[in-house]
Amino acid sequence: MATGRSLAGVYSARATRPMPLRAGARAPCAGAAAAEPAAEHVRRLVAEFDPAVPLDSAVTPPSGWYTDPDFLQLEIDSVFFRGWQAVGHIWQVKNPNDFFTGRLGNVEFVVCRDANGKLHAFHNVCRHHASLLACGSGHKTCFQCPYHGWTYGLDGTLLKATRISGIKNFNKNDFGLIPIKVATWGPFVLIRFDDESTEDNVYDTVGNEWLGSASDLLGTNGIDTSLPHICRREYIINCNWKVFCDNYLDGGYHVPYAHGDLASGLQLQSYETLTYERVSVQRCESAPAEPDDFDRLGTKALYAFVYPNFMINRYGPWMDTNLAVPLDSTRCKVVFDYFLDKSLLDDQCFIKKSLEDSEQVQIEDIALCEGVQRGLESPAYSVGRYAPSVEMAMHHFHRLMHANLRHCMNTVLYCNLVNSATFQLHKKHVCWL
Ligand code: FES
Ligand SMILES: [Fe+2]
């Protein structure tokens, strides 16, 4: 995802048509920062994890990966700014004029469907004086800026610039909303910031580009558009976003200790983990239920982790998704969306009880994650170990992170860290300046 600073290098500062996003062009360092010192402590943190060590001998990433604000800035630039990122689901923009807003790092975005039914995504920033434009989610025929009333269509066109009589060198067509690439995969809406193409900004579908060779497995195991959205729950958790992901990726290791009720509904000895390019899948069979028992889990559960921060859980008649959004280095927001088989939409009892059971698991996980974060911040801890028979998906995640970070450390993006506004805020804590 872009930071405000990065976008300054991406889009023309002149009051003209915005330039397309171009990762390699975000390089104020090309001239100014060539002599800047490397961000050594972040570089050292990345290097402290060795992805080549086999799982049974490997140590986990150091605690600085989970606590350091500069490390998070590098993650934002190099992980969230690269490739497709899940940001919502199709039911949020089902009808013409539907929209929803969001934030990734410093990027404010709005996803909407115009009056002709075409999907769009834009930076949610007014071209006049930068006010945020749309708020929350809903249904609108246009976006009117709350500040001075400039008005945009849901196709991004500037429809009305108020009280600009006398203005010179101003062409309304150059002041539309700045577009972001948007796509869908099954029921999910994705955006990306690093696509340089100036072609149409909407992809009907990303095909295998998002999920790689896991695409078929997920597409044929009930992760599709047939399940209507039921509700959303959001949790602010006092932990680094990766603590939540790690907790998800331990192969059911913590389930018998932390989720007694859930454990009794699963056959944990059947747990298996599969890893793909950027996806890992954990599968588990459920304990047989009596015919009249409440049974939200069905006969088997599938838990797919889509790098870097999106989780898809498919069990019985339910699908739920978890999106772990970093807020700062020690805080994240996790968004849960629940989808249910159409045949049960009227069964309010079943829905209520299912959501209560799911909530109970989340409360238990939040306590675990917040406890881990406090431990990571303790001087007593530096690195840990993996349980080789169960924590392979977590190791896979850390290796992907390392590859991503390492790659970007060696590119121009890293120079941006040195120059970034966020970095400047934190530089008093940084040893190399
Ligand atoms: S900032 Fe939007 S109209 Fe002025
Ligand atoms: Fe859990």
From TrEMBL:
<keyword id="KW-0560">Oxidoreductase</keyword>
<keyword id="KW-0001">2Fe-2S</keyword>
<feature type="domain" description="Rieske">
    <location>
        <begin position="84"/>
        <end position="191"/>
    </location>
</feature>
<dbReference type="GO" id="GO:0005506">
    <property type="term" value="F:iron ion binding"/>
</dbReference>
<dbReference type="InterPro" id="IPR001663">
    <property type="entry name" value="Rng_hydr_dOase-A"/>
</dbReference>
<dbReference type="GO" id="GO:0051537">
    <property type="term" value="F:2 iron, 2 sulfur cluster binding"/>
</dbReference>
<comment type="similarity">
    <text>Belongs to the choline monooxygenase family.</text>
</comment>
<dbReference type="Pfam" id="PF00848">
    <property type="entry name" value="Ring_hydroxyl_A"/>
</dbReference>
<keyword id="KW-0479">Metal-binding</keyword>
<comment type="pathway">
    <text>Amine and polyamine biosynthesis; betaine biosynthesis via choline pathway; betaine aldehyde from choline (monooxygenase route): step 1/1.</text>
</comment>
<keyword id="KW-0408">Iron</keyword>
<dbReference type="GO" id="GO:0009570">
    <property type="term" value="C:chloroplast stroma"/>
</dbReference>
<comment type="function">
    <text>Catalyzes the first step of the osmoprotectant glycine betaine synthesis.</text>
</comment>
<dbReference type="InterPro" id="IPR017941">
    <property type="entry name" value="Rieske_2Fe-2S"/>
</dbReference>
<dbReference type="GO" id="GO:0019285">
    <property type="term" value="P:glycine betaine biosynthetic process from choline"/>
</dbReference>
<dbReference type="InterPro" id="IPR015879">
    <property type="entry name" value="Ring_hydroxy_dOase_asu_C_dom"/>
</dbReference>
<keyword id="KW-0809">Transit peptide</keyword>
<dbReference type="Pfam" id="PF00355">
    <property type="entry name" value="Rieske"/>
</dbReference>
<protein>
    <recommendedName>
        <fullName>Choline monooxygenase, chloroplastic</fullName>
        <ecNumber>1.14.15.7</ecNumber>
    </recommendedName>
</protein>
<keyword id="KW-0411">Iron-sulfur</keyword>
<dbReference type="InterPro" id="IPR036922">
    <property type="entry name" value="Rieske_2Fe-2S_sf"/>
</dbReference>
<dbReference type="GO" id="GO:0019133">
    <property type="term" value="F:choline monooxygenase activity"/>
</dbReference>
